[in-house]
Structures are given as structure tokens and as C-alpha cells.
Amino acid sequence: MSDNSLTIEIIVPNTPKQVFTAITNVDKWWSEGIDGETATHGGEFTFTDYTDLWCRFRLTEFTPPERIVWQVIDSRLDFIGNHTEWTGTQVIFEITPTADGTRLEFTHQGLRPTIECYEACSRGWDFYINRSLPELLATGTGDPIRKP
User: Fold this and answer.
1) 0.90 exceeded by the pTM?
2) How far apart are CA 53 and CA 24, in angstroms?
3) Which residue of 9, 21, 37, 121 is surrounded by the most CB atoms within 10 Å?
């Protein structure tokens, strides 16, 4: 993206519908600490990693099986000085069919190299998008943050 927001692209051998459905099962690939509605336009959910880190999201776009946008409406990132650094950012999933399956372009719009959490957050997203989500699609079991 032209604004240097974090973007990760993967291609998986699944259908767009399977990828879309997997993304909406956020507790299966990101964190078991998901509470709320993750599969309805206008739905809201909260993510936690079971520390003082949490974020509240609203689904502002929900177009099966092509696009999902989560707007961060509130956040607390306990490991950096600006605890609300994610508030106002967007997490975007663009899903397109390819000859080999499906291309997923993940963008955390607003997560730029100039902000404090970029290094740690980009490593986290890299793990969940490049490893956990594809594992969920391939085996039915991802590697989310587990409940203590």
C-alpha cells in the first residue's frame, strides 16, 4: 500500500468461500479470547491475549467471499507507551480466486513502520496470517493464543 501499512499476501489451495469462513472463525486462528460477533456486517467483537492487551473491533465491511474489514474502535496495547495505538486502524482481508486456489491479501491499515508497536505487531500478524490461518485451512486446526 502507498501508506506503508503492513500488508501480507498468501496463496492457499482452498476456495475463496473456505478462506472467508476460516477468517470469520477468529478464535480458531488468532486467539481463543474472542468474544462477540465475527461473521456479521456491523458485528462487534473483542480480542484478548489474556493479559492487559485487548482490542474491540467492528465489522464495517462484510462481503462474502471477497472482503472483510475490521475497524478498531478501542484498544489497549499494554506493551507500548501509547496503549491505544491501534484505535482507529483497520484490518482488511481481500480474497480473490487464483488458478492455484485463493489469494489472501491482509492489510493492517495504519500499522506503519513509524509507530511504536510495528515491529512486535508485524511479527505477530506474520505468524497468524502465514502460519496459523493456513494450518486451520489445511488441517482444521490453527495455532491461536490458547486460554490459560
Assistant:
1) yes
2) 21
3) 121
